[in-house]
Write a structure and sequence with these properties.
By secondary structure, this protein is mainly α. The protein has six helices and two strands; from the N terminus they run H-H-H-E-E-H-H-H. It has a two-stranded parallel ribbon. It is globular, with a radius of gyration of 17 Å.
């Protein structure tokens, strides 16, 4: 993000409504000097664990930037291995505009993917539960079966639900 830029309403993506995140997504993309979106597959999450897969997605996001970043500011207290130096900021998505902007890009991108899955698999309710382990989500899996998009590690507690 450009130094000194202030985007009205920019905050931790979890504190914003879906409509506000969508609006800010466009503003962040318009104003960012560069950004990248990184993903980790269901298989990678199952193989490595959610934290390591998150770090992998962060590295991919950095590598996807058309204008390379020279420094990373990462939310949390653990620094992934990145091709650039950086630092962590605990609760950074509510303290740092760059982290808040990144959290919005990530959350909106993920929510859009879940809406695509909802069109593909409407009986599962992905647009509603966004992939979280809600009662309705578990009930849909029990009724309709496991999909290729489901993480096997997510399903470990299925019988308990």
């Amino acid at each position: 993000m450009p130094l000194g830029l202030e985007i009205d309403g920019l905050d931790d993506s979890k504190k914003l409504s879906e409509a506000k995140r969508e609006a800010l997504f466009a503003v962040v993309k318009e104003n960012a000097l560069s950004y990248g979106i990184g993903w980790a597959s269901e298989e990678e999450i199952d193989k490595h664990n959610i934290l390591q897969a998150t770090f992998l997605a962060m590295r991919r996001a950095v590598e996807a930037m058309p204008i390379p970043a020279d420094y990373a500011i990462v939310d949390g207290n653990r620094m992934p291995t990145l091709p650039i130096p950086g630092e962590t900021v605990v609760k950074g998505d509510s303290k740092c505009a760059c982290i808040a902007a990144a959290s919005i890009l990530a959350k909106v991108s993920r929510d859009r993917l879940l809406r695509e899955w909802d069109l593909q698999y409407p009986e599962y309710g992905f647009a509603k539960h966004k992939g979280y382990g809600t009662k309705d989500h578990y009930e849909a899996i029990k009724k309709y079966g496991v999909l290729p998009v489901h993480r096997k590690s997510f399903l470990k507690n299925l019988n308990e639900k």
